Amino acid sequence: MLTLNAHLFLDLMDALSALERTTAEMHKRLADMLVENGVEQTAAQNILMGWPVEGEAVQYQTMMRDALKGFSLEEWEPILGDLERQCALLQLKFSISQINRIRTMAGMESTSAGFAVAFGELRRRIMEEIKDRVFVSVAPETQKYIADKNPFGDEVRDRFLDRSEDMEACGECLGVGLPTACVFHLMRIMEAAVCDLASRLKTTVNPKDTWGLILQPIDAAIDALPHGKNASNKELAKHEAFSEAAAYLRHVKNAWRNNVMHPKRTYTTQEAQDIFDGTKTFLQSLIKLPRR
Predict the structure, then answer these.
(1) Does 69 score more than 90 pLDDT?
(2) Distance in angstroms (rounded) separating the CA atoms of residues 14 and 134
(3) Cβ neighbour number for residue 273 with a 10 Å cutoff
(4) pLDDT tens per residue across span 133-162
(5) How far is CA 199 from the centre of its chain?
């Protein structure tokens, strides 16, 4: 999923405007140079436009082209580079091709008028490519879910690598206002997580069963762990950690609003948010569990 901030468009337009301002400044400086050297107005216009000239004007045309090369190489590349980065983020491939064409022109005998036309074509391409795109506006309070590609933390992701795509996708769905889709991704994550918890307790569960049937063997396995007055501190800590994980699992069950670990027909944003938060807490509690 391509994520963009609104300032990207402003940066793109600012860079394009800076390029056009630089072009205008270049044209004026070249015109002033010709006037200072006594070139008459008609000949100066022909030189700037790249039209044929005769007599002494030929040397000024060569002078202008040399000055133009130095000007473009020194002052355009930073702006062109900035434009190219912005276009790359927006995947504007035809605009990038035009930027590279302008770079090629900078090393050739081009005219100020030729560059002006090339920059005009660049603006046209950018506007045409942007016009055919659809952009989604995301509310400030949900932007964090899209920006965070690893919403449950590195340890959780590393523990459940085969669910890393679901971890990223559930946040994106929540961020763009697709709560039911978010819960579907959370379901895939929870299926793996519940089986992981059962495995640590040396029992088995079927994540397709009802919540009651899932919790029953987990609770029984936890209750079988030493935790009475004769248990060691290590055993008590282990029992407490697993009991805490089971409690967090129940929080997810309650937020799920369904008797099985499968999404109901639809979920509101708040319901998906509750399941997301509960799942995150449960997953992070699994990381803290002692090894067998």
Answers:
(1) no
(2) 21
(3) 17
(4) 777 777 777 788 887 888 999 999 999 999
(5) 36
